[in-house]
Design brief:
Elements (H helix, E strand, L loop, with lengths): L8 E2 L10 H5 L5 E5 L5 H9 L4 E5 L3 H13 L5 E4 L3 H7 L6 E7 L17 H10 E11 L2 H12 L4 E3 L12 H9 L4 E7 L1
Parallel strand pairs: 1-4, 2-3, 2-5, 3-4, 5-6
Antiparallel strand pairs: 6-8, 7-8
Helix pairs in contact: 5-6
Amino acid sequence: MPGVSPEPWLSSQRLYPAYVWADVFQRNAPVEIDLGAGDGVYAEARARREPERDFIAVERLLGRATKIAKKAVRHGLTNLKVLRIESWYFIKNLCQAGTLDAITLRYPDPWPKRRHHGNRILNKEFAQDASKAVRVGGLLKLTTDDLDYFEWAKKEVAHCVSWQVEESWSGEGEPTSEFEELFAQEGRHVYRKAWRRL
């Protein structure tokens, strides 16, 4: 992509206004967000496999975000950007309405203790903010190994009438990670659900 900066970092100091993705990537293309991107295995795999799409990996921890940035540079992935910021703030304040093709949440912290449930990201407020950021027909995708979190998240998203369960999405074809392969070896079940923006 001529003219696109190889610099993968977006500034964590930017708190407003919302991004214009065509300016960020110097082209018009579908934009997907990987929230809590970890060390970027998923985002990197998607960016390499689908050069026609643009990806933002959002990760709060500096060490992990740095790993993603290094992968983007190493493989010349100008369609992958990295932002170190809280996921909820990014979706609420830095995404223009109707500009995202998909939001992916893979293995978010389940905060298993009841008194910590308020820290869970996929609550009804987040679902509402996400519905504003995602275009009509776009997706919100969840993958988790925690059944309690899975059932809780489904109830929270159901509070937002803008989302409808997307029965056709099973997660097949999604890139896996060492994390998931270890789960499979241990016989642990992975739960997946997607919602489509009405």
